[in-house]
């Protein structure tokens, strides 16, 4: 696992660097991630918030999620690339969108979360842990 690792938006207006290994890599199937990704799920590397430095100013959108938590999505206002997500219940962590990494090939997803919102037409990777909501929730 390459540490540090870097990434950014498609147009280059926003760049980031992370100095910690991901704690967890997930495919999230919640409706908010479906909207944000334009697909069946969003793949994200969960990292310590303090391990990430960001150059540029991402735009942000916040909403109350199905979990009841206020969640934010950060993206490039110029090219629209999704970059980060987080929520008020876990302020010490940041979800980095896998597609925003310079090289996402080394990520190894461990779980599918928010399966209660998963689309029946979406393919699922065999052998991953699965939760109906967030890990530890019903």
Strands, helices and their partners?
Blueprint: E1 5-8, E2 15-18, E3 24-28, H1 31-37, E4 42-48, E5 52-55, E6 59-64, E7 70-75, E8 82-87, E9 93-97, E10 111-113, E11 129-130
Parallel strand pairs: 3-10, 10-11
Antiparallel strand pairs: 1-2, 2-5, 3-4, 4-9, 6-7, 7-8, 8-9
Tally of individual helices? 1
Protein structure class: mainly beta
Oligomer kind: single chain
Q: Give the count of structural domains.
A: 1
Strand order of the largest sheet: 6-7-8-9-4-3-10-11
Mean pLDDT: 94
> How would you name the CATH homologous superfamily?
glutathione-dependent formaldehyde- activating enzyme (gfa)
Give a verbal description of the structure.
The protein has one domain: glutathione-dependent formaldehyde- activating enzyme (gfa). With 138 residues, the protein is mainly beta. Helix content is 5%, strand content 38%. The strands form two sheets. An eight-stranded mixed sheet has the order 6-7-8-9-4-3-10-11. The protein has a three-stranded antiparallel sheet with strand order 1-2-5, with no helix packed on it.
């Amino acid at each position: 696992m390459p540490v540090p690792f870097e990434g950014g938006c498609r147009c280059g207006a926003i760049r980031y660097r992370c100095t910690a290994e991901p704690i967890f890599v997930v495919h999230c199937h919640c409706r908010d991630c479906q909207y944000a990704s334009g697909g069946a799920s969003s793949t994200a590397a969960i990292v310590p918030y303090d391990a990430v430095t960001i150059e540029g100013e991402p735009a942000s959108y916040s909403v109350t999620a199905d979990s009841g938590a206020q969640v934010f999505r950060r993206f490039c206002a110029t090219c629209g690339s999704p970059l980060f997500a987080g929520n008020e219940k876990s302020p010490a962590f940041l979800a980095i969108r896998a597609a925003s990494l310079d090289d996402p090939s080394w990520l190894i997803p461990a779980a599918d979360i928010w399966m209660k919102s998963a689309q029946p037409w979406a393919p699922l990777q065999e052998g991953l842990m699965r939760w109906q909501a967030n890990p530890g929730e019903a």
